[in-house]
TrEMBL record:
It holds the Pfam family PPR. Transmembrane segments: none annotated. PPR repeats lie at residues 169-203, 204-238, 271-305, 306-340, 341-375, 452-486, 487-521, 522-556, 557-591, 608-642, 643-677, 678-712, 713-747, 748-782, 783-817, 851-885, 889-923. PROSITE patterns: PPR. This is Pentatricopeptide repeat-containing protein. The lineage of its organism: Eukaryota, Viridiplantae, Streptophyta, Embryophyta, Tracheophyta. Gene3D superfamilies: Tetratricopeptide repeat domain.
Amino acid sequence: MIRRHAAAATALRSYLRRACSSHAADSNDQLLGLVEVPKPRPGSRLSTKDFAFLKEPTPPIPAASLPPPEAVLISKAIRAYATDFDGSAERFLRRHRDFLTDAVVVAVLRSVRAPELCVKFFLWAERQVGYSHTSACYDALAEVLSFEDRARTAERLLREIGEDDREVLGRLLNVLVRKCCRHGAWAEALEELGRLKDFGYRPSGATYNALVQVLATAGQVDMGFRVQKEMSESGFCMDKFTIGCFAHALCKKGRYSDALDMIQREDFKLDTVLCTQMISGLMEASLFDEAVSFLHRMRCNSCIPNIVTYRTLLSGFLKKKQLGWCKRIINMMMKEGCNPNQSLFNSLVHSYCNARDYTYAYKLLKRMSACSCPPGYVVYNIFIGSICGGEELPDPELLALAEKVYEEMLASNCVLNKVNTANFARCLCGVEKFDKAFQIIKVMMKKGFVPDTSTYSKVITFLCQAMKVEKAFLLFQEMKNVGVKPDVYTYTILIDSFCKAGLIEQAQNWFDEMRSVGCSPNVVTYTALLHAYLKAKQLPQASEFFHRMVDAGCLPNAITYSALIDGLCKAGEIQKACEVYAKLIGTSGTVESEFYFEGEHTDTIAPNVVTYGALVDGLCKAHKVVDAHELLDAMLSTGCEPNHIIYDALIDGFCKVGKIDNAQEVFLRMTKCGYLPTVHTYTSLIDAMFKDKRLDLAMKVLSQMLEGSCTPNVVTYTAMIDGLCGIGESEKALKLLSMMKQKGCSPNVVTYTALIDGLGKSGKVDMGLQLFTQMSTQGCAPNYVTYRVLINHCCAAGLLDEAHSLLSEMKQTYWPKYLQGYSFAVQGFSRKFIASLGLLEEMESHGTVPIAPVYGLLIDNFSKAGRLEKALELHKEMMEVSPSLNITSKVAYASLIQALCLASHLEEAFGLYNEMVRKGVVPELSVFVCLIKGLVKVNKWNEALQLCYSICHEGVKWQGNNSFDGG
């Protein structure tokens, strides 16, 4: 895989170096360049034996996780004799009834899945002597019965069960109610309760407890009281957990006196756990004085507050931004030996930093070690990011504090993330601490931080604004210091550097200045700016600048056309690049293009190896590898010998489109021409073979790579780890990660992210969370993609609180506010991987607030889980991030509206609908269906009919500019 700038840019740099060789700078100056040649790390030499474990067969799935063999036989028989269950199927089952266990029954139900067959088998099993269904069996049958067509099929089957065995039906109906409760669907749970009573059954104590819990969680306390009254009349009492949930919900509504009366009626004694739950509810209701009074009441009732009580109070005050109260609680709890945990410490430091109370925030940071939770990656980024992340420079005292914290951070082996490193260096440059700024970047590089265009841009911009350009461009400042007027070569170096940093406008200013002082630009100067405009996809400006160059009498040369072709390819204008090439070789015919000129010197410009290299690379990146291969033959026919860059581009191109055999042919051709394969060549082949699941072939290439004394780098290891994860070999991927560390190759953020994604896809989200923590402690800062991958997998696994915690960490470490788009966060990841996360579409619609889609993901999942209050809280929080942008996904809006309608919060549902329309988000038909159902549910028939009328007769614009007009 090619890991270098395009050939045209390489030639341009060498041209500049030759042009300015008479002004060479002192090579000992520490600001000559940020990126150093990596020094070889100590460690034993790699051999094929080190990777032998990759060839080991994957261990079989543990027997404990497989269904019992009897269950497999029974399932096949039931499906085979489906039409004759009472005859052939029962005869077969009787021969195997000695093997009947609850595990076998559950496995059969999950395998067969057909509701009617499952019911027949379930009833047959219950009739067998010596066997009785457990709760797991009832849960499995309830899962089968709620698949599809629940309203008709399940009702009929339930009646059949009742006719056969009323006791079984009673237990099953109770299980169905509790199943709805577990999923937070309180409305459906009440419907199931009604059906249970219609069938003539009485709810069990466990069912009543589950109902009260789900109603309390949903905030339906009045309904909860009615169920609790019915429960009491039936002779059942609430258990401890249910009382805690109900008391919390009542306090959350401000009805703490009702909660106390309820506890007294249930003849339950207040204890520390119950009091803590009530305090939590009072805090959520913003009843701060009442919560603290209740804390004192606990002591009067001999309930000693514990660490959970204090953390609940502290979290509540922090969430409501009551920082004065937080200080009092912190003092109170620490006197009693109760300390905040690390997450709470991080949030406290974040809040006090936002309040600009840095003195107290620093005290908390120092206190963390004494509380057995030493400061880590997150809190250091919070502190330094808060001081240095603003537009204006911090006060000298604050910057000095940031420097002090930075030194403590280094001693703790932690790192700053990409955004905060750049901001810290920018602030130091702003107070003329250039050496310090440079040293920070150098130290961070040693810890795995790689400066990108953004980092270079900020540091270079401040150096120039401070008129300390001798530190950024030594030759240019040296000439100014001695009073020598800068010449064309000096300005050209400056313009070229600004273009490479993406500062085209500033480069254009230098270009205008050099002309104003009588210094005429040369072909290299024009070429540098022309190439920059093309790379930035600013084709009109590039075309205009090309004509200015020709009109000024500065004729393009071979390097200019090479840069033209390279820039057009990078801008995605492959056809125009081919037109320029066709003009150069004289086959353009009547083709017209704005990027070549007619003149007597045109015929003397012939494509060289750099020109061909740029076009081959561009065609390969556009997946036109067949055309690129034909171009290779064309250049050979002209006597132009390809170099290893062209061969590498072709090999990488064939690998990217899955044509491994063609890539190997080019590889053999390359070696026959005397070019030694590089680590990039081998990495392209290994990556493609892993993705094609040809592990044996990949191992052969790896062996050849090691025999040729070519050591794998972090990109090679990452490709292998990603490939292993792609074939479900996450355990081997973990071993490979461990091995690369032992061999002195530090994994980067792409490596860790690929492995975290692989673990998540294998269902090992907990291991992914552990690896995420490990990467931060080992000096590798996670980026946006890492957070997004892990949040996706946490949501899929139902770990919503962990996902929300990760979102909070993202906010605290300043990703959302100061990362202007995704372009730097996604560097190093393949386009296919980024597309699999849906980030390509997000980059277009959410370029300035990259955290917004994560909010949408969490809102959708919290809504579906029935945690409506948390979903609304996240929605409100997201709107505060950027209220002017359309940053909520259609799915998130639909989920919220559906949940609100189900909870009969119609006013809020319609408010969200109006907000959705205002922001230009086109609603799906399902949104209107939810609103209509919600209106019908509360007997607002007129409003429901009006909404139906507006849909049918006024026309509603749907996605894709189609409209529904009542057809």
